[in-house]
């Protein structure tokens, strides 16, 4: 069986009509690939369209300030992608005069670009025969060839990259790379793949040996850490509110949030009152405290679960750095806080 030919033929019949597939512009392809890291197409598509409309060229993206970029990214998560996107746009616009690097070896040097993204851009935009290996490709190759090497191991990463490189259609690298990724996303899905009508079925090792559900193999993830966040939603008599920018290298760097108290466990109102009165913004201040959500809102990240409470604090105290509630929606915030802002009746 000619694996590459069958996958490309399937792609020509069943590929989704997506905007980044209608262009060879490396800026648009790069933009789509960064957005689609850790993000499904149906979620990423509207963000892609918003970015293209707001920043039609890499110069437009480079000229924007980071806060606007983060605001447009809001809800996609993994915000380091947005910061790296902005950094790279400024580098290409200012240092390379807007000319995007056109080889894998140069593209991979860009901030926020790894092997997969560099391979995708180099092959799709410039026709270089560099094989992509993402979650979809791992799944297709693992099942078809019956490979049980863990895909997130050093050995597995090398093995699957070498195999994909061997299989790529050297004359049509863009079509092959997009085809095998689309095949994994649409046909050889993680659960309930369409094996009965699969053009690779007759030679698929996993199908023949009834190992579809067992492949690909992945090493167990790092143990999830539970954290307990308590946000202080402080509202003064003038309907002003306090937000603070997150600093450091932790989650949500440079996004805005309400003043935060992190505790070792979820607290009752009585227990939290003792903690809150010691906070720098509430010392020697008269206020009324109420709990917005009695059940913790659990926000799941890759290696940590955030158990969150929003504490509503009304006070006659005025704060120098408070902002009008009307301004709140202009600030880039984590999805967790955005959901609260959307639901809470200020």
From TrEMBL:
Its EC number is 3.2.2.31. Transmembrane segments: none annotated. Its cofactor is [4Fe-4S] cluster. Keywords: 4Fe-4S, DNA damage, DNA repair, Glycosidase, Hydrolase, Iron, Iron-sulfur, Metal-binding. Coiled coil: none annotated. It is an enzyme of class 3 (hydrolase). Pfam families: HHH, HhH-GPD, NUDIX_4. Binds 1 [4Fe-4S] cluster. The keyword Membrane does not apply. GO terms for biological process: base-excision repair; mismatch repair. It comes from the Bacteria. Residues 35-186 form the HhH-GPD domain. Adenine glycosylase active on G-A mispairs. MutY also corrects error-prone DNA synthesis past GO lesions which are due to the oxidatively damaged form of guanine: 7,8-dihydro-8-oxoguanine (8-oxo-dGTP). This is Adenine DNA glycosylase. The lineage of its organism: Bacteria, Pseudomonadati, Bacteroidota, Flavobacteriia, Flavobacteriales.
């Amino acid at each position: 069986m000619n694996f590459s030919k069958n996958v490309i033929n399937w792609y020509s019949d069943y590929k989704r009509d997506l905007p980044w597939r209608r262009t060879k512009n490396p800026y648009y392809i790069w933009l789509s690939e960064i957005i689609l890291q850790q993000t499904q197409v149906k979620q990423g598509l509207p963000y892609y369209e918003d970015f293209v409309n707001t920043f039609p060229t890499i110069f437009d993206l480079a000229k924007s300030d980071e806060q606007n970029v983060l605001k447009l990214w809001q809800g996609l998560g993994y915000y380091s992608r947005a910061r790296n996107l902005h950094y790279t746009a400024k580098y290409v616009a200012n240092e390379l005069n807007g000319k995007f690097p056109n080889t894998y070896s140069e593209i991979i040097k860009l901030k926020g670009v790894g092997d997969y993204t560099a391979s995708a851009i180099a092959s799709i935009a410039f026709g270089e025969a560099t094989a992509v290996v993402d979650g979809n490709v791992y799944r297709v190759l693992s099942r078809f060839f019956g490979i049980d090497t863990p895909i997130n191991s050093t050995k597995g990463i090398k093995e699957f990259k070498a195999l994909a490189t061997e299989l790529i259609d050297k004359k049509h690298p863009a079509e092959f790379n997009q085809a095998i990724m689309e095949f994994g996303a649409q046909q050889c899905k993680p659960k309930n793949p369409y094996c009965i009508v699969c053009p690779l079925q007759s030679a698929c090792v996993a199908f023949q040996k009834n190992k579809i559900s067992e492949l690909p193999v992945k090493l167990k993830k790092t143990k999830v850490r539970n954290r307990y966040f308590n946000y202080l939603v402080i509202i003064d008599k003038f309907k002003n509110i306090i937000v603070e920018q997150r600093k450091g290298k932790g989650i949500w760097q440079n996004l805005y949030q309400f003043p935060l108290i992190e505790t070792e466990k979820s607290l009752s109102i009585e227990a939290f009152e003792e903690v809150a009165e010691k906070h720098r913004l509430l010392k020697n201040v008269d206020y009324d405290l109420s709990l917005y959500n009695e059940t913790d809102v659990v926000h799941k990240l890759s290696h940590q679960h955030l158990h969150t409470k929003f504490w509503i604090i009304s006070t006659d105290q005025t704060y120098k750095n408070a902002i009008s509630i009307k301004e709140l929606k202009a600030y880039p915030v984590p999805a967790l806080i955005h959901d609260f802002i959307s639901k809470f009746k200020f």
